[in-house]
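--- STAGE predict ---
source: upstream dedup step, 1 unique chain passed
mode: sequence only
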Amino acid sequence: MEAADHILIVDDDAAIRELLMQYLQKNGLRASAAADGRQMHAVLASQRIDLIVLDLMLPGTDGLALCRDLRASAQAIPILMLTARGDEADRILGLEMGADDYLAKPFAARELLARIRAVLRRTRMLPPNLRVTEPARELCFGDWRLDTTARHLADASGTVVSLSGAEYRLLRVFLDHPQRVLNRDQLLDLTQGRASELFDRSIDLLVSRLRQRLGDGVREPRYIKTVRNEGYVFCAAINAGDGQ
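--- STAGE serialize ---
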């Protein structure tokens, strides 16, 4: 029997931690909790965690800094950010730091469960409209090589560049649909695998983050070109191989 997904709830409100743990466990998930960043790291060091529900407002190191540090250390665990105010600036910062999704407080536990399941589903499988029959193990373009088995992006010197789950999915969309203009709605559909409720700027922010990872300039891009009033196109040549 397949083990239940293990969710780590990081929130300084003890009542919220207990409520969410009970709800997730009743719905077939394992759940652990942490009150701050120190406790979060202790859990991550001792247990396998499949997704982190991370509150933005935490004592000591806040959720944004924790999210950034996890991504900087190449931690690929999906992160669902909780924002107390529901302010757009918080959501933008969360996405920029590498969060895979966000949910504004107050929220219904049922919605959180749906978001958790959606993020886990997106993390583990490409949407049907993105799948290819014989996926190559390596996709090479310009100075970069993407290992689609290990999900590693490496530069010409072999140095691995960390990608969040959302960044990896977006890069795969571009590499599987090169030389084709994709508008924002198409990119949301392909990367989220569902009708997205994310605000309009989320894809632009994700593209900007991916460009930074690739060292791609906006004025003279080598890889991702903006097509005014239409969307984006991946303009570099791609070579597929088996990594040998």
